Amino acid sequence: MMSDGMLSQDEIDALLKVGQDDDEFENKETNNIDTSNYLTSIEVDALGEIGNISFGSSATTLSTLLNQKVEITTPEVTVIKQEDVTDEFTFDHLSVKVEYVDGFIGQNVFVIKSEDASIISDIMLGGDGTNPSEELTDIHVSAVQEAMNQMMGAAATSMSTIFNKKIDISPPTVKKQQASNNKSIDLNESNDVFVKVSFQLKVGTLIDSNIMQLIPIPFANQLVEELMKQSQQESKEEQAAAVEQVEREKASEQTSQTQKQETVQQSSQKFLGKNAAQSSNNVHQATFSQFEQVELSSNEQRNLDLLLDIPLKVSVELGRTKRTIKDVLDLSPGAIIELDKLAGEPVDIFVNDKLIAKGEVVVIDENFGVRLTDILSQSERLKKLK
User: What pTM did the predictor assign?
Assistant: First the structure.
């Protein structure tokens, strides 16, 4: 009770206790160790950027699966010891182990609260998420596993774009764990220290929680090293392109000056030859500058310019499949259709239903896009458009 406008000690304790349960998944300063002993600030930023891009695409995939608005905040990167993991998970949860099999070799684990997993599985199974099951059965775990499989597939595709190479993962494995039984991280590798990437997950008005990724230090170093190498390579390519552009401009300028000099010389010779013919009354065969090739090139260019504003239909084919009429009639919202392509495999890009290139699906500001990876030559593309 309040007396004379002052709070009693019990009331102060009650206010301080508000939100205590919501903070059980937050970073604990007692568990987090000095990150600088294992990662530089640049490496921390690099891991954060990788997580930000890859899980941004995962959020888009989850939003499509659940038909809910999904938001993931910028991840926070810290370092945690193996013996402190037990203290970190003081609640029932699902551990999702993801293994990279192509592009990178390594493993990491995602941890999601059981109550959040119940809401996701309830929506995946046709519910609205407002009355999830209190106990996760095998069916619920399978539903969560399918959701994580598609989310991690989207993340692998985004990482393929970041590292400019094909990256593939095996189907994630999901395991139920209770707080009292959690003794270690479910990884084959033996590591004493892990990188902890934590971020806030919001699913409509149903979930406002946290999700955590644990990465072994060697695998984290592998990711950072590859990203740095890729950045250096891109920087060298940009510098080489800039130097090549300058050299082309210089060569073009020299060619232009040479052509001007030749034109002046030819004009002078024609003028002198005309005067000499008039003074001697001798008739000589006229000489003309050879402009035939230049005029032909100009005409061809002019003809091509007339076509540049013609609109063409550009379409991207993610994959194909064949289904019977019965299968099509059985489709419902949330149904999953398997295509004839694997996750991360290049998609086909068509112009007026003619194949011209292949590319990779990327996400730009929550919109899908395609990054060209292989393109037909200019002559082949013109032939395809006929």
Answer: 0.53
